[in-house]
Amino acid sequence: MRALTATPAGLELRDALRPPEPPPGHVVVRVTAAPIHPGDLAVLRGTTRVGGLEGTGVVEQAGPGTGGLVPGARVAFFPVPGTWAEWVTVPASLAVPVPEGVSDATAALMLCNPLTASLLLRAIAEAGGGPVVQTAARSSVGTLVSALADGVPLVNLVRNEPGDGAISTSDEDWRDRVRDQIGGGARVVLDAVGGSLTADLAELLMDGGTLITYGLLGSGSTPVEALNLVDRGLTVRGVTIRHWLLRTPEERRADVERAVRIAVDHPELLTVAATYDLAEHAEAVAHVGRPGKRGTVLLTHHEGQS
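Predicted structure:
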């Protein structure tokens, strides 16, 4: 089978052995589509392994103790290492049945970003709610947060191309425009950018507010001392999807149910930027970093599996 593997020289498409017969509690899945999230590329640096943590496909073999996961069943899965390959072994506990009528493209995006949005919304609630200022508002996660915020006062920031109420941080007066909307300050700033923007974002918080950071899309850096955390009683909190499995079973179940509902009722929130065959990985990675990209880049298997 083909597998897209990280090496010191970059990503390489290699021949690999197909997975063996699945052990108890696991299934072997023929992968039909898998996304490239920016975080996927970051965690691969300096490693030698098959990339990818999310995908969708068809169960080909089922080990004992996998419940209703039988050959032919369509499933989505996350977090499962090695999804940028034609076949992958998936723990049955992380395989989510794909509802009828949901496309492969939607199913491939059904879990990671919606689960991230659920983590962020929970963190906002734990910090006291709105008003919230959100960076990267047109990113895949930002779009989901905006759609699921359930009445939380929200000011959306984008890097460029303002519109739909979003404020561009490229405009000189963006800080004043945000303050005009939030009045006495934001209770929460939800930030996927970081870097040199952090100090400006912290200034938008009310005293006692919380800066929730979940990405590093920006450039530059901000020293902690520049944030005036002590005098203003500010909190800085990191949130990562890598900690999702540490949530309670009840929270994880609720998060997955919400993700499936999004895929069924609002597939337009799970936007695909473009699809590429595994062999086109260089073009796919370049597209991930393209300025102004909307949606998520998918890897598929145009050449057929073997």
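Summary: The mean pLDDT is 93.
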